[in-house]
Design a protein that fits this description.
This protein is of the alpha/beta class. It has helices at residues 6-13, 17-20, 24-37, 54-61, 73-82, 120-128, 154-161, 177-180, 196-207, and strands at residues 44-48, 65-70, 88-92, 105-111, 131-144, 150-151, 168-172, 187-194.
Length: 209
Amino acid sequence: MTNVDWDAEAASFDEEPDHGLRDPEVRRAWAGRLRGWLPARAGDVLDLGCGTGSLSLLASEQGHRVTGVDLSPAMVTLAREKLAGRDAVFLVGDAAAPPVGEQRFDAVLVRHVLWALPDPGRALRRWRGLLRPGGRLVLVEGVWGSAEPVGISAERLTGLLAPITGRVSVERLSDDPLLWGGQVTDERYAVVAMDPSGQERGEAAAAGQ
């Protein structure tokens, strides 16, 4: 999986129900989840491993300004076409080391990327550094396959996040067939990890009321 030629896969990538989100019910299911994961106020969202930009488009439709990064130039071309005319920028680059300079974000959104990276802990620390105070990491991951399972478990991911983030919540996704275009039996989940500095400020403000 990690050796896939994503440029070659780009043309057919959106044929998977959860990639292209072409089915209205699948699209609505992802839009609803994303609305719960991303900040309520419009902000800056970094979509890493954005593929053809399907989640970027949902975030944009919910009012966010989107920066997408993908290693595949062909994927980035399709994402730019999909979000033409919107407040969105797409860059060719490594999700583990996004080429965004000093820019900071209210949310870093990553779906099905972390498990394939050689050093997920290092990537998480880098992504954590891209957050504004009060920002959040939104990580959609899983463990797929039975004979030779690949992926990253929710337990391992939350363990990697514990030293570098504040509140961490896990949302199981395996039991919602609308997200995947059908029933699944493997482990699929989302983790939302909050920036602790913003969390502390919010608690202090609440205490002062």
